[in-house]
Amino acid sequence: MNDVVAADDLADLVIHASGVEVRRGGNKLLADLDWAVELDERWVVLGPNGAGKTTLLRLAAAELHPTSGTVHVLGEQLGRVNVFDLRTRIGFTSAAVHGRVPPQERVRDVVLSAGYAVLGRWKESYDRMDTDRADELLATLGISHLAERAFGTLSEGERKRTLIARSLMTDPELLLLDEPAAGLDLGGREDLVARLSALALDADAPAMVLVTHHVEEIPPGFTHALLLSQGRAVASGLLDDVLTSENLSETFGQDLVLQRSGDRFFARRR
Ligand SMILES: Nc1ncnc2c1ncn2[C@@H]1O[C@H](COP(=O)(O)OP(=O)(O)OP(=O)(O)O)[C@@H](O)[C@H]1O
Prior knowledge:
Oligomer: single chain
Pfam family, one: ABC_tran
Distance between the termini: 42 Å
GO molecular function, one term: ATP binding
Strand content: 25-35%
CATH architecture of the largest domain: 3-Layer(aba) Sandwich
Order of helices and strands: HEEEHEEHEHHHHEHEEEHHEE
Structural class: alpha/beta
Number of helices: 10
CATH superfamily of the largest domain: P-loop containing nucleotide triphosphate hydrolases
Number of domains: 2
Number of strands: 12
CATH class of the largest domain: Alpha Beta
Protein name: ABC-type molybdenum transport system, ATPase component/photorepair protein PhrA
Helix content: 25-40%
Bound molecules: adenosine-5'-triphosphate
Radius of gyration: 19 Å
Keywords: ATP-binding, Nucleotide-binding
Mean pLDDT: 90
């Protein structure tokens, strides 16, 4: 990549991947990947099981380095930056984070402790500002009434919402959501989609990347899509351009029909 061009471009880019390949045990998890996410964009990364979506999100979360190619996150090049500093600027929710929360932890503390980059309450007193911020986020996600409950007693949907509140606690510049609606029932999914939509439409919210298998889970307000299949981009760009029956069929290897109802998407086999 040309360094002079990159310096200008990178100022407005939250994620920039150029010629990225990730190899593990002889497998190409990602190949030939070019991708750019700007500050005000909300991206959905869509693809079948094993397509490389989580691998891509872990690159964006500075949890993984590419085998070849370059990845810049928030203007910093992976491999040339202290990833621990970089990660404080990124909110990331995934099943892996879910599994690390102590079940006895109170919901408010799960959210609060993000500001201290720990899981499990470790300080007896937090700043009043932090507590107010945590309560504000619990209200935004509709779980204020659960603030005193132990995380382990929550339903799947309530846990997901708690972890999204946690990932917003540090006012991240980039929010990464790995399959936030997985395992939710219809009501839980619809509630989460509505809350993520409100977040996506909030001009003050960070840039967002949401990974999903299902077009039904795309919250209105998301602007761009990257379709991944077998580690490669099938299509990438504005949601309305990229989300077509043809692209979806190629991505999932089946003859699919995409339907749109208002600002929501649905897909079925032809
Ligand atoms: N350490 C590894 N060694 C070899 N292959 C791996 C390794 N880690 C992941 N893979 C493979 O890489 C591919 C991409 O994995 P990844 O988790 O990124 O896919 P995904 O799109 O998130 O899948 P899913 O939707 O099922 O979560 C999968 O086929 C997976 O088996």
